[in-house]
Amino acid sequence: MIGIGLDITRAGQTVSFSPENLRRGSRDVRDLTVRPNRLYSDTAGTTPIAGPGAEVAAMCDSRGVRVLNQTTASARLKYAREPASGVRNRANGSALVADNAAWTIPTVTSGITVTKVGTGETAGEPWADYRVQGTASGLYFQSIFAPPLARFPAVSGAVVTSSLKAQLVAGTYPATLSGLRLDTQELNAANAILQTSFQLLAVTGTTTTFATTRTFTDADTTQAQMAISIRVDTGATVDFTVRITAAQVETGAVRTAWQRNASEFDVTEAGVRSVHQLAFDSIDDFMFMDSNFAPAGAYTMAAVRTGNGFPGGITFDSATAGVGLFSQSATTILAANTISNSAQFLPSGWPSGAAGVRRLDMVRVTGAAAVQAWRNGVLAASGITITGNLTPLSAISRLGRAGSSGRFLGGVLIDEGDTPLTDAERLMTERYLAYNGGITL
Known about the structure:
Blueprint: E1 7-10, E2 13-16, E3 28-31, E4 39-40, E5 58-60, E6 66-69, E7 78-83, E8 112-122, E9 125-135, E10 140-143, E11 151-153, E12 159-172, E13 179-187, E14 193-200, E15 208-215, E16 223-232, E17 237-251, E18 260-263, E19 266-268, E20 274-279, E21 287-293, E22 299-306, E23 326-327, E24 342-345, E25 359-367, E26 370-375, E27 378-379, E28 384-387, E29 396-399, E30 407-415, H1 423-436
Antiparallel strand pairs: 1-2, 3-30, 4-5, 5-6, 6-21, 7-20, 8-9, 9-17, 10-16, 11-16, 12-15, 12-17, 13-14, 13-16, 18-19, 20-30, 21-29, 22-25, 22-30, 23-29, 24-28, 25-26, 26-27
């Protein structure tokens, strides 16, 4: 029977569930739960990774047994984390105020010098102090947060808000046409700015939250971007220091609770648990399984992932890069297209698999042409096309392959052997993977 939360109750005793609990009889269970304490920077699985953004050479299961490895450094996935509630702050590196690659020191030009004179953190929010001084011989206009780091996909019709907190900490804030400026911009694929909404901020000695929102209107829009700049009008003489705190850019018309974004691999939020991921680079990343998964009879495969491709998380189409995750070196067994030995899952009403959307896919094969499929806990009642014989399953040897995209948030492969998987076990496995992946069923 299923107990409360993520526990299974057995003979009056409640124990914490993990895929390891499914090991019964001759079952072969591959626990691919992504957790930082299971990830290693060496293929031997002895040196833990340093943290978010680290390349992963090996992954172990809860027993300490290595289940995935990659000897080629350039093909290794990277460890990432983000809040279970999702990523809102798309300004990568906005929390790294001391990093001059993110929070820049502009070039001295037009008689104006801008210096980053201090950084720190107050009440959990990082800040940077910039001093602006000189007499402008011409219009001075320089970014102080690297714009490409705050760039993300968007289309015409999108609503995007850029925001920050600002305070004057020294000097006299300049009159109209000079000071701190905040932009929300829409760009095309060539990174050219098409339209922008901006504010020249009226900063005072009191910390104030500023936001600028734009509804994108240009048909060529493919990206959104936040820009934080210093503007000094021609002829103006200035000497002031401004503090910039908790910068954020996000979809929607309002500023939401601030999220700490240290990099695209490291987004966290106070009071919200993190979900752990392996990130593909869409070029050559994949991992080998330590031993092939090749059940002779019934089997179950499940995974949580983000990224485009269908059916996400479970399969790989050998003809098209990036469609799924579990694959052989040359032959696809369960695939998104109709080829030999494949199953095509196209039930109406399922999530489309847009980039960044987490989804849990699960399939159970109990015979040559007997397949059930679930996405986010919803059983596919129709739309399943089967080609060829799905049992026995030829060896699956990889998590992804060159060209895989998106992020992997954990999965499980179960060769049922002589002990068929019960519906209660399947449901618990589904709930476990959904919870670890930040999905509510």
